[in-house]
Every structure is written in C-alpha cells, then in structure tokens.
Amino acid sequence: MGLTDSLADYFGFAKHDTDLRTELLAGLTTFLAMSYIVVVNPTILANAIQISGYTQDQVVQMVAVVTLIASAVAMFVMAFYANRPFGLAPGLGLNAFFAFTVVLGLGIPWQTALAAVVTEGVIFIVLTAVGAREYVIKLFPEPVKFAVGTGIGLFLAIIGLQAMGIVVNDDATLVTLGNIASNPVAMLATVGLFVTLALYARDVTGSIIIGILGTTVIGVLATLAGLVSPGTLIGGWVQSGGFNANALPAAQYDITPLVGAFLSGFSNVEPFGFALIVFTFFFVDFFDTAGTLVGVGQSGDFLDEDGNLPDADKPLMADAVGTTLGGILGTSTVTTYVESATGVEEGGRTGMTALTVALLFLVSLVFVPLAAVIPQYASHIALVVVAVLMLGNVTEVDWSDITNSVPAALTIIIMPFTYSIAYGIAAGIISYPIVKAATGDADDVSPGQWILAILFVIYFVVRTGGILQNAV
C-alpha cells in the first residue's frame, strides 16, 4: 500500500468524498489565510513581553517561533485525533486582551498572564475529557446555531476589507470607504478580490490561492519596476530594481526565556483577580471556538439535523491542548480559526487538511524572518471571498418566527460590530429565553439554556463593569 492509499485509508477520503490533492490544496488555502497571525501575534504580544537582555525584534521572533510550534502541535491533534479540517493558532483578540488589558492595562506581569492561559487550558482539557464542553455547545439555541455562520461571514468580511484598505476608520461614522483610487494597497487588493471572485465563479480549482499569490506577485513586480515606493505593497526586502536581503532581521530561534516562564507567574498571585482573568480567557476562548466549529461546520455540511457537530469533543480537545502548550511555551490562548472556512470551501473535509496546515507552519520556522512575505492585504482576500459564501447560511433561519429571528439577528449583528464571535453568540443566547418567555413559550427553554444565559450576563458584568480592573 503506497503513501497516498495509506493516507486515504487513515483519514477516510472515500467516506468524506475527497482526495489527497483536494485536501492538500485546502490545507494550503487555510495556511495562507491564517499566515498573518505569524506576524500579528508576535507584534501584539511583544508590546507586553519584555525580556531583559533581548531587543523587541528578538522577542518578536521568539514569539513567532512559539506561535508556529504551538499551532502545529494543536493541529496535529486536530488531524490525527479529531480528523477535522480546522486550523488552530493563538487567537486574534485574545492576544490583544492578554497584552493590552491584562498586562499593560491591569499591570499584571506577563508571566502571570501566561499562568492564567495555562490554567485555562488545563480546565478545558478536563471539561472536554468529561464531555462538558460538547454538552454546553449542544445547549446553543437552534436559531443561534444557524446564525453563527452568517455572523462569522460578516466578521470575516470586515477584517478582510480593513486589511485591504477598502474599509477604513472614520471619527464621524466609525467606518467608511477608503481612498481606493489613491491608495496602491487598496487598489491592488480590490483588483485581486474581483479577479479571485471571477475565478471562483468560473469554478477554477484553487481560485482563492491563485488570487492570493497572484496579488502578491503583482505587488512584488510593481515594486521592482519602481511603480510604487519600496515598502508600500511589499516589505522592505523588495527594492526598485532588485531585492535587499540585508533588510531582513537576523534569525532568533532561542525561545528559552519564554518557555516555562508561566511557572514564576504563579508566585504572589492575588487569587480573586487571577480567577477573574482566567474566567475571562475561559469564556472568550470557549465560545469563540464553539462558534467557529459550528459556523465552519455548517459551511462544510458537518452538522447533523439538530445543528450539532458530531464528536465535537475531539476538535475541542485539540483546542485545549494547544492552549495549554501555548501558555507553557510563551504565547496567548490557542483557538480554532474562522479562516478554516477558506480550506473547507476549497473542499477540505478531513484531518489531512489540518495536517497540511501544521506541516506548513513547521516549514515556516525556516522563514521566521520572512514571516511577512505574503502581505496581509493579499491573504485577506480569502476572508472576503469566504464571507460572501457564508452569508448564504442565513437562509436556514426561520425568520417568520420572532423567537428565532431575534436571537439569530442579534447573533449576526453583534459579531462584526463588536469584533467578537463570542459576543455575538452571547447576545443570541441571552435573548433566546427572554423572547421565548415573552411570547409564552418559556417551556421551550431548557434549564441549561437559562443557566447559560445567566452566565453570559455575569460575564458581561465582569468584562465591562470595571470589576476586573478593581480586583487586581
């Protein structure tokens, strides 16, 4: 039996109506869509992590190495244990909470913040092992489950459009249209987006990859030809007329100052404040992951007739292991990525997709100084394309029933406007029993759904009421 046959047999290609080529292509697509985190995560965490004797550039590269290793291990678990096509990495948003709220805002040592991440990961492993996390996900009201995919689509859209310069900040209206015609990044990204959509409409295999790589190549060529100033479309290593290897920083692979730093973080911990930090990490990670699994699972037709993801405990375990290992190595919470939808849309259906992403993350260790080769505006074309596709999930909601439409609509609206999957799910879960009770259908709400709604209310009080700040 050859390698291809062995992989087909192990991952069940025939059962999932896929093949090795499709899985590899899906893995590459997901990798390219997720690759920005290798640059963004170290940049964010380096604001909070200061190590004596090391420059910020060295810390950035240390965190990049840790990001790649923790992500790869989590995806190995996803591939071989869960056999699902989901990618994992330190969560965008969770890393910002780690750096700007916990460490810089509350003055908590970064080692203690890592201790909170490890604690959260261990709790997740235990809860997943006994099936508690899967049980909680099954408590999601049906309209919330069906709305998550559309909410994630809008969330992906705003992330992608902002990275591409098409949507920009505005003091008067919060967001507005960017100056596309005068901004080379927005101009190239817009062309790349429409070309990618056209290729996808033509059913061209690998259309998303072609769009990302094609946009990047055009950026390189435009810089080499002197049409734009160096650093506008591509990093400073590309210059007019040639390449400048000296612009790349020296590689820093020694991560020993980060590994195990969480242990010292347990000393002199204020119990109540530490518990609240763990609580916040726990809630955001739990429901970000749950929402991603349900939303991406809906896109891949993985959900059963009740809107549940079968054997959800297995991908949840990959998330829990990744979070624990990430905290031990020196990075913030690892979570399942909504960008996994890009690979699913390319046909990824098994753990072979996740394995491909994991191997590409490990290969990227060789190119840590080149982490920004694929510019963000190019990789995020994939997010907008997938967002367009995920909006179709909204048709699953019974909009004629007010008890379905209210929680579904709030789930969809809150996600992009608060930049959080978890907050959108929270809005839907809290509103569901309230609307049911108001229409005289309180009997349709299970005790677990009431408890879940109350817990979310408590979470919002802790998160937005200043309690966390006053406790540390």
TrEMBL record:
Topology with respect to the bilayer: Multi-pass membrane protein
InterPro entries xrefs: Azg-like, Azg-like_bact_archaea, NCS2
Location(s) in or outside the cell: Cell membrane
Gene Ontology CC terms: plasma membrane
Residue intervals passing through the bilayer: 24-46, 58-81, 88-108, 114-132, 144-168, 180-201, 208-228, 272-296, 352-371, 377-394, 406-430, 450-468
GO molecular function: purine nucleobase transmembrane transporter activity
The keyword RNA-binding is assigned to this record: no
Predominant place of localization: membrane
Origin: domain of life: Archaea
Tagged with keyword tRNA-binding: no
Pfam families: Xan_ur_permease
Alphabetically ordered keywords of this record: Cell membrane, Membrane, Transmembrane, Transmembrane helix, Transport
Family of the protein in this entry: Belongs to the nucleobase:cation symporter-2 (NCS2) (TC 2.A.40) family. Azg-like subfamily.
PANTHER family: XANTHINE/URACIL PERMEASE C887.17-RELATED, XANTHINE_URACIL PERMEASE C887.17-RELATED
Protein name: Uracil permease
Protein source organism: Halocalculus aciditolerans
